[in-house]
Design a protein that fits this description.
Layout: H1 10-13, H2 40-44, H3 55-63, E1 67-68, E2 76-82, E3 91-98, E4 101-113, E5 119-129, E6 137-141, E7 144-146, E8 149-150, E9 154-159, E10 166-167, E11 170-177, E12 182-185, E13 191-194
């Protein structure tokens, strides 16, 4: 595999999220994490997903602004990827199983804390609901080429082949817009993804 892809997959193999602290929220529902909406400026600017009023989009928007150091109770980490710094800011993708379904969160990373510097407070900037995957599908983050050039901002659902390390059949794709803090649908033509573990 091309070495240019190795740096973006640190989260998938590092248990950093497992060592992170707690979060807070004003919502009292049992299935929602506790959030402080300290990031009201991001909400006011429309960075939460307001382009659709579907139940899935509303559920995803409810997590936008969540500040956390560890995943809330009832959530599970499926993987993640640290993204290259953009405009001086650090971000990551996190594939999370939430009480409202599977999602990809775009997190901004705070300053490292703790004795080892491994703990970083995060803020969910955008949340992408992931539809249920078919048996022959898998989710790929930050390892797709778009028209022959690596674009780590892409998340895609590909047709999985147990022996493949490159996936040319892409069923759905999205590209994160860092400035707007949202995921935009991306045409699948010209997208090829690689298995980050290969």
């Amino acid at each position: 595999m091309n070495g240019r892809r190795l740096n973006v997959f640190a989260l998938a193999s590092i248990g950093a999220l497992a060592a992170l602290g707690a979060c807070t929220q004003t919502d009292s529902s049992a299935d929602a994490p506790r959030v402080t909406h300290a990031d009201t400026a991001a909400r006011a600017s429309g960075s939460s997903q307001t382009i659709s009023t579907s139940p899935e989009r509303r559920a995803a928007a409810n997590y936008t602004g969540l500040r956390y150091e560890s995943l809330p109770r009832g959530f599970a980490l499926h993987g993640g990827s640290v993204l290259p710094a953009t405009n001086g800011a650090d971000y990551d993708f996190v594939h999370v199983k939430t009480p409202r379904g599977d999602m990809i969160w775009l997190d901004s990373l705070g300053r490292a804390t703790g004795a080892t510097g491994a703990t970083r407070a995060k803020v969910v900037r955008a949340a992408l609901p992931i539809p249920p995957l078919a048996r022959d599908e898998r989710l790929v983050m930050a390892s797709c080429d778009v028209r022959g050039k690596l674009d780590p901002r892409v998340v895609a659902i590909v047709v999985d082949d147990a022996n493949a390390t490159r996936f040319t059949q892409v069923r759905q794709a999205w590209r994160v817009d860092f400035g707007a803090h949202r995921f935009d649908v991306l045409p699948v033509e010209g997208i090829v993804c690689e298995d980050p573990g290969s």
